[in-house]
TrEMBL record:
Species, as recorded: Sulfurihydrogenibium yellowstonense SS-5
Family in the record: Belongs to the EPSP synthase family.
Transmembrane segments: none
Source taxon at top rank: Bacteria
Domain Enolpyruvate transferase: 5-426
Subunit structure comment from the entry: Monomer.
A Gene Ontology term for the protein's cellular component: cytoplasm
Catalytic activity: 3-phosphoshikimate + phosphoenolpyruvate = 5-O-(1-carboxyvinyl)-3-phosphoshikimate + phosphate
Purpose of the protein: Catalyzes the transfer of the enolpyruvyl moiety of phosphoenolpyruvate (PEP) to the 5-hydroxyl of shikimate-3-phosphate (S3P) to produce enolpyruvyl shikimate-3-phosphate and inorganic phosphate.
Main location: cytoplasm
Residues binding 3-phosphoshikimate: K21, S22, R26, S166, Q168, D318, K345
Localization, UniProt: Cytoplasm
Protein name: 3-phosphoshikimate 1-carboxyvinyltransferase
One GO BP: chorismate biosynthetic process
């Protein structure tokens, strides 16, 4: 499907964007291992998270949806069953990597595959440490690419330095740590999203965390059992970011974004938007099931270019393409470095943004680990490619709102991965 987004006068209104993808995945995965029934309200019903539901059903977990609430009948830490076919992980890196961590604890055979994008994404980053712990893993390209097979077994805890600051890698190792003899520790130079440790803690697992001069350290121990959870998943800051960005670049705009997760490992984009000059305010800040939630108000104000430094990248990793896109509207240059990881997301997000800028006649320089974007550029419009990457599609839709002749996005239906209602919501707040 192609979609054209045209210039609007302003953005105005109130939205409750869909629920957090990272927390929704973890709610299914972790409660599948609990003793008893977990209840998940406001679960994100989108491509990636439904992939997780299907995978855990194939691993023998009963997952029932009734009137929008998900009931997960946990099987305990030894209750998953060998699936009788491939697990199809679709487009979802999070499902794949976290599930490899879980399967490392089960002595049966599983084969995992995925779509064209997922089959190109690196898995050695989890396969290697999990093999070190005792799992047997093999796959294409020396165990790096899907299809991958795994047979879990007797695991031993390790200390792992998470150089890439990948929350998926950290989570996979911590999940395997629940089954491993002794302690399992992950050390990160800068803390990555910490929902796995928050949720494990709320389920009664041993989780110890500390900040040292080398960064962040988290340790888990072998667990006897996990208690079921009752959670209400907050709105996804990565989805809210698109509307915050739109309100920031269109004069006269105001937007209210309700119930948004503002965990400091996730809200870096909103902090950066404020630094750029937009009016960003958190109201009604509250705690929900161990996570911080707020209503976010964003209004237009002239933006200026900024620097994104390597240590700022983890808390805004998925919003960097969007930041690069709105940087074309700011006064002065924006320089983003330390974001190599963008090259191995659903698409090579540095290339996807740079190639689309070229198609639209916009100036930016590609760096190995980021971009330099020139500010105050006129956007005439044209046709861009989503590269079947949901965040690229939504980012360029936002640019369409300030274009003279509109921007047409190819393969725009990929928004289904995280935000099926995106174009309806965009229409709702466009004036
Ligand atoms: C995620 C972690 C991040 C992020 C992805 C979701 C998670 O990936 O980009 O969208 O839920 O743990 P990495 O762990 O590869 O940085």
């Amino acid at each position: 499907m192609e979609k054209t987004v045209k210039k609007v006068k302003r953005i105005e209104g109130s939205l409750r964007v869909p629920s957090d993808k990272s927390i929704s995945h973890r709610a299914i995965i972790l409660s599948s291992l609990a003793d008893g029934i977990s209840i998940v309200k406001n679960f994100l019903k989108a491509g990636d998270t439904l992939t997780t539901v299907n995978a855990y059903r194939k691993l023998g977990v009963e997952i029932v949806e009734k009137e929008g609430v998900y009931y997960i009948h946990g099987k305990g830490l030894d209750g998953l069953k060998e699936p009788d076919d491939f697990l199809d992980m679709g487009n979802s890196g999070t499902t794949t990597r976290l599930t490899l961590g879980v399967l490392a604890g089960f002595n049966f055979f599983t084969a995992l595959t995925g779509d064209d994008s997922l089959r190109k994404r690196p898995m050695k980053r989890v396969a290697e440490p999990l093999s070190k712990m005792g799992a047997k893993i093999d796959g294409r390209k020396d165990g790096n690419l899907l299809p991958i097979s795994i047979r879990g077994g007797k695991l031993t805890g390790i200390d792992f330095f998470n150089e890439k600051m990948s929350a998926q890698v950290k989570s996979a190792i911590l999940l395997a740590g629940l089954f491993a003899k002794g302690e399992t520790t992950v050390i990160e130079p800068v803390i990555s999203r910490d929902h796995t440790e928050n949720m494990l803690n709320s389920m009664g697992a041993y989780v110890s965390r500390e900040f040292t001069k080398d960064g962040y350290r988290v340790t888990v121990k072998k667990a006897d059992k996990l208690n079921p959870i009752h959670i209400n998943v907050p709105a996804d800051p990565s989805s809210a970011a698109f509307f915050a960005a739109a309100a920031s670049v269109i004069p006269g705009s105001h937007i209210e974004l309700k119930d948004v997760l503002v965990n400091p490992t996730r809200d870096g984009f909103f902090r950066k938007l404020k630094e750029m000059g937009a009016k960003v305010e958190y109201k009604n800040k509250r705690d929900e099931a161990g996570e911080i939630v707020a209503d976010i108000y964003v209004s237009y104000h002239e933006l200026k270019g900024v620097k994104v430094k390597p240590k700022e990248v983890p808390s805004m990793i998925d919003e960097i393409p969007l930041l690069a896109i709105i940087a074309t509207q700011a006064e002065g240059e924006t320089v983003i470095t330390g974001a190599h990881e963008l090259r191995v997301k659903e698409s090579d997000r540095i290339k996807s943004v740079i190639e689309n800028f070229k198609r639209l006649g916009l100036e930016a320089e590609e760096l190995p680990d980021g971009m330099i974007i020139r500010g105050k550029q006129k956007v005439k419009g044209g046709i861009v490619d989503s590269y079947k990457d949901h965040r690229v599609a939504m980012g360029f839709a936002i640019l369409g709102l300030v274009s003279e002749e509109g921007i047409t996005i190819k393969d725009a239906d990929c928004v289904y991965i995280s935000y099926p209602e995106f174009f309806n919501h965009l229409e709702k707040v466009s004036k």
